[in-house]
Amino acid sequence: QDTIESRYERPVDQIFAAAKEVLKFNGTLYGENTITKTLEAKVNTTTVWVRVDEVDPKVSRVLVQARAKGGSGDIATASEIDKQIALRLK
Fold first, then answer.
1. d(CA 25, CA 33)
2. CA of 61: how far to CAs of 22, 45, 46, 68, in Å?
3. What percent of the chain has pLDDT over 90?
4. Which of 3, 9, 17, 50 could pair with 65 as two cysteines, CB 3.0-4.6 Å apart?
5. What is residue 8's three-state secondary structure?
């Protein structure tokens, strides 16, 4: 288990911007794809991926995936990043 999924009644662009700020704050953002709305960052030694997509016109979905250096899932980091994105949207 390495992925946390959340849904928000917010536009994709707003969530994408919040996720970008959170990843920059916690580590080093080194991958950004504005077409597929994905971000890739290094938080400590963990690689974190965030994907934002639209479920329906009013609801957007955020997937936060975290993998430790050896490739094992890091659910604690994924959960922390997800929580910070939610707080940034409030």
1. 19
2. 16, 26, 22, 23
3. 93
4. 3
5. strand
Give the model confidence (pLDDT) of 30-74 as tens digits.
999 999 999 999 999 999 999 999 999 899 999 999 999 888 999
Query: How far from 62 is each of 1, 43, 45, 52, 69, CA to CA, in Å?
Result: 16, 18, 22, 5, 23
Contact 23, 39 (CB under 8 A): yes
How many other CB atoms are found less than 10 A from the CB of residue 44? 11
Sequence length of the chain is 90
Please report which confidence band the pLDDT of residue 22 belongs to, taking 50, 70 and 90 as the band edges. very high
Percent of the chain beyond pLDDT 70? Answer: 100
Write the DSSP string, 21-73.
HHHHHHSEEEEEETTTTEEEEEETTEEEEEEEEEEETTEEEEEEEEE-TTS-B
